[in-house]
Design brief:
Length: 358
């Protein structure tokens, strides 16, 4: 639990201020050399890394935790205030190197194909900064960050499903309701294969039309999985499950809008923000709170509030891109909803009782 508390707290605090680093940089309030690309790296490499480590690393010694926390913290500092991009990438690589094996080894002993697929996925996510920098240095080219977003989407799909299933089973059992479909391994594997194929094609810059088709089918399977979970059986008092369902649904919505953007050859950033704000936001805040507190009770309204803020933030970010007249105002609403949700999450993680956190 201590690992989760440390990295979830750091991740939540950083996430709450991350959108505004870009704002103050562009406005000139602070003389930061902080670009949109830096912001993307901070969220995809830094914030996502903190979430993965917090959830999957497991119990570690105080020395290991302090070392990892320092490396992660220095990465955020140099990323924001330094122009030495090489040093930032070294810190990215060190962080990924230290955590890659202990996390991947948990899945190496698995027999199921979906679990085994997680091993190369963690290696790719952890090593993506180094791969990106190496290709840029040697070939003077860049791997599209969209490939990494799709890779993280695959991870969110997998981990979200593995969190929802036992919680849903328990909730329905407590309500004396049978659950016909739990993990749904064939559907899970099919969806992951579709998403991973889209990652490969995107990284190689091959056939955006094919990527659009793959993502659309993956979105359809995510919807099918949710329907087969029979969420209508879940009571309103199970706010954490409804929050997880909303985040999972945002993955499907984001993939559909991304497919539409690819097919129509329009900008794709706003559609991917539905996934990275709405999907990641709703899933991460709920998982961070639920796993940090374990069986201890949390206010039911807390999950509805944080998930609703994230859904609004994700959809507002998309709407801003198609409503140029009110772009700044809508973008501010999106950033404010995102920040408030993570501030609330950080406060609850910070005040978790010691008997729960240790």
């Amino acid at each position: 639990m201590k690992t989760r508390r440390v990295f979830f707290l750091m991740g939540a605090i950083f996430a709450s201020i991350a959108p505004w680093l870009l704002v103050v940089s562009f406005s000139g309030v602070l003389e930061l050399n902080y670009s949109v690309l830096d912001h993307a790296h901070a969220m995809l490499y830094g914030f996502a890394g903190a979430l993965i480590v917090g959830y999957l690393l497991g119990k570690r010694s105080d020395f290991e935790l302090i070392l990892l926390a320092v490396i992660w913290g220095l990465g955020r500092i140099f990323e924001t205030f330094s122009s030495q991009i090489e040093l930032t990438y070294v810190l990215y690589f060190l962080f990924g190197l230290v955590v890659a094996y202990p996390i991947a080894s948990k899945f190496l002993v698995a027999k199921k194909a979906t679990n085994l697929l997680m091993v190369p996925m963690f290696i790719l996510i952890g090593g993506f900064p180094l791969i990106d920098y190496s290709i840029n240095w040697v070939l003077k080219d860049k791997i599209s960050l969209e490939a990494l977003v799709l890779l993280i989407t695959t991870l969110l799909f997998f981990m979200g499903g593995r969190v929802i299933t036992p919680l849903l089973t328990k909730a329905l059992k407590d309500n004396y309701q049978p659950i016909a479909h739990r993990v749904q391994p064939r559907l899970e594997l099919a969806t992951m294969m579709l998403l991973l194929a889209s990652v490969v094609l995107t990284a190689l810059n091959i056939s955006s039309q094919s990527v659009a088709l793959l993502c659309a089918f993956a979105a359809l399977l995510i919807v099918v999985r949710i329907i087969r979970w029979e969420p209508y059986k879940v009571k309103g008092s199970q706010g954490h499950l409804w929050a997880l369902f909303s985040g999972y649904a945002m993955l499907a919505i984001g993939l559909v809008m991304y497919s539409v953007s690819l097919y129509s050859a329009t900008e794709t950033t706003s559609s991917l923000h539905i996934i990275m704000i709405g999907g990641l936001g709703a899933l991460s805040t709920t998982i961070m709170l639920k796993t940090t507190y374990g069986r201890s009770e949390l206010p039911n309204a807390l999950f509805y509030v944080t998930a609703s803020l994230m859904v609004v933030a994700g959809l507002a970010r998309y709407v801003a891109s198609i409503n140029i007249d009110y772009y700044t105002q809508i973008l501010a609403v999106s950033g404010l909803c995102w920040s408030v949700a993570y501030i609330i999450t950080a406060v609850y993680i910070a005040k978790v009782p010691k008997r729960v956190a240790l």
